[in-house]
Amino acid sequence: MLTAATDIEVLTRFGRALADPIRCRLLLALRRSPAHPADLADLLGISRTRLSNHLACLRDCGLVVAVPVGRRTRYELADARLGHALDGLATTVLAVAADRSCVEADEKGCCP
């Protein structure tokens, strides 16, 4: 049974998905068009096993869905609005200092 997530749950799931560069690349690829896992693995230059783990994460987060197509499975964004959100996020201007990096979080969960 599907349920609607709260605003906080949606943002938390989206944040978890975006926390990994491969998942970001997957979401951006699926924003352009639905795709089969083999094609996605080739596009991203990663193994199918590694891709499968990331797709499972994105499915668990509720951001992508698996659509059976004959004997194959195609992946697509769960909601077209996710594509619009990704467009907005990708073109956002961030206010960051040149000497600061937010790649790794410290023990408090804050950027160093």
From TrEMBL:
PROSITE patterns: HTH_ARSR_2 (PS50987). It holds the Pfam family HTH_5. Transmembrane segments: none annotated. GO terms for molecular function: cadmium ion sensor activity; DNA binding; DNA-binding transcription factor activity; lead ion binding. One of its GO terms (biological process) is response to cadmium ion. Residues 3-100 form the HTH arsR-type domain. Gene3D superfamilies: Winged helix-like DNA-binding domain superfamily/Winged helix DNA-binding domain. SMART domains: HTH_ARSR. It comes from the Bacteria. This is ArsR family transcriptional regulator. It comes from Stackebrandtia albiflava.
